[in-house]
Amino acid sequence: MDIRTVPNPIVRAGGRWLRRVNDRHPWSHNDHFHGWILRRLPTRRRRALDVGCGAGLLLSRLRGRFDEALGVEADAAMAGVATERFAGDPVVSVRHARFEKVDGTFDTITMVAVLHHLPLEASLRHAAELLEPGGRLLVVGLARAETLTDLAWDLPSSLLNPLVGMVRHPRPVTAPVDDGGPPLPMRDPAETFADISRAVRRVPPGARLRRRLFFRYTLEWTRPV
Ligand SMILES: C[S@@+](CC[C@H](N)C(=O)[O-])C[C@H]1O[C@@H](n2cnc3c(N)ncnc32)[C@H](O)[C@@H]1O
What we know:
By secondary structure, the protein is α/β, with parallel strands linked by helices.
């Protein structure tokens, strides 16, 4: 179930209005959570891995906080953009690869709006294996809204979203924004928050999973020393 498809004409008209306002005052729900990630970095900061790094904005924020930061990106065009961004950078490197093929060890692994592109349990297990003892997995994820509780979480986000947009991007966009870059690969999440909670109880045990505003959840896990 999605709040935009509720079969009530008033709710749907409200949804269309909200969508129009959001299009005119866009802001990134994903980048909004970068602060949450940066506040939770572990003490030891040798190597960071950003999975599905897209154009590399989070990598640019991890840079300066780690000795090395690696971005892996499965989409060739996006990997090209990120590679170009950090060309010649001694700290940040970008690999056009699938997360499943990554090896080595890391002090932090980040995933922003990526886990729903991956096989859930296998990817959590792989991330846990790649972490050094004391290393931290930090996930900002999307879940499919299905239950009334899910909808109840989406409702304040839907109402707050245009307000935040107007503050962050006060000048309305009149034409579609084209930054000249390739489109970010997107996918609707298949798993619900309940599915993710069940998976996280098994792997990695002890992870802290929380619903958040703006259609996101966060997951935090530190590999025991
Ligand atoms: C919605 S985008 C998010 C990008 C970026 N993390 C951000 O916050 O802007 C999801 C990204 O994950 C990448 N992706 C999907 N499957 C992947 C995989 N198996 N390994 C690495 N990256 C993957 C996609 O190509 C896409 O760039």
